[in-house]
From TrEMBL:
The chain crosses the membrane at residues 49-70, 82-99, 105-122, 148-172, 178-198, 210-231. It comes from the Bacteria. It holds the Pfam family TauE. It is a multi-pass membrane protein. Belongs to the 4-toluene sulfonate uptake permease (TSUP) (TC 2.A.102) family. This is Probable membrane transporter protein. It comes from Streptomyces fodineus. Keywords: Cell membrane, Membrane, Transmembrane, Transmembrane helix, Transport. PANTHER family: MEMBRANE TRANSPORTER PROTEIN YDHB-RELATED, TRANSMEMBRANE PROTEIN YFCA.
């Protein structure tokens, strides 16, 4: 019995999931935040709860490819400052999921994403220049890292939607294109791998889901390769505009679902 039969997926449904996997690869090596569209596709084709567990290994496959591509560009001081706050956000997200239904979760995350996109655009219009990455050592930089870290942990726990949050943080901190991609690659590889035991414990990852993941992971690779090709042809300003646009699209689709 093949994986499509196991999950009662039609040919069109599998094609949609494959397209979403392609987009995951592209987002990991080019326009971070675009994979919020993949999240919506997975939730539309598969049972909503199961879709989060199936999507997670696909995201990790993209994270591995992104780390291999941009590992020399990561800014580790930023990562170390983010992780404690992210852990706190994961705890908050877990508590939130204990009482919130799907509608409240989607609305909350969508509103957060749109708010942060608006704040980022406002800051970039009013500031002469963004902060350099090494300015995260300042008091304001540490406070910003903590607030975005908590939000990132919260959104990645409840909906695998931490990408746009971190995108807004890294843009607001003044990261250039390659530093942005390298730092986010390591961040999400570590965070997503740490979520695997919890997802498995909840029954969201099992043998059936991994069979489907194996079939979909094949499509992540060409997406990542295309992203690597495309990012070298995108200037910094367009890159930032695409990241913000992807965040807005992700926020809107969460609100209207």
């Amino acid at each position: 019995m093949n994986t499509m039969t196991l999950w009662h997926i039609s040919g069109w449904g599998f094609a949609a999931l494959a397209s979403a996997a392609l987009l995951v690869g592209f987002s990991k090596t080019a326009v971070s935040g675009a994979n919020t569209v993949s999240l919506a596709i997975f939730a539309a084709v598969l049972p909503a709860r199961a879709s989060t567990g199936i999507l997670l290994p696909v995201l990790i496959a993209g994270d591995v490819l992104a780390v291999l591509t941009y590992r020399r560009h990561a800014h580790w001081p930023t990562l170390w400052r983010l992780f404690p706050a992210v852990a706190a956000g994961v705890v908050v997200g877990t508590l939130f999921l204990m009482w919130a239904d799907d509608g409240i979760v989607r609305t909350s995350i969508g509103a957060i994403l749109l708010l942060m996109a608006g704040v980022t655009m406002w800051r970039r219009r009013t500031a002469d220049a963004g902060e350099a990455p090494d300015q995260v050592t300042s008091r304001a930089g540490r406070a910003k890292a903590r607030s975005y870290g908590v939000l990132g942990g919260f959104t990645t726990m409840v909906a695998n939607a931490g990408g746009p949050v971190m995108s807004m943080y890294l843009l607001s901190a003044g990261f250039r294109k390659l530093g942005f991609l390298g730092t986010s690659a390591f961040f999400f590889l570590i965070v997503n791998v740490s979520k695997v035991p919890f997802s498995a414990g909840l029954g969201l990852i099992d043998g059936r889901s991994l069979l489907l993941d194996a079939a979909l992971a094949v499509f992540v690779v060409p997406g990542a390769l295309f992203g690597k090709w495309a990012v070298n042809r995108i200037n910094q300003r367009l890159f930032e505009q695409l990241v913000i646009a992807a965040t807005i699209v992700g926020g809107v689709q969460l609100l209207v679902r």
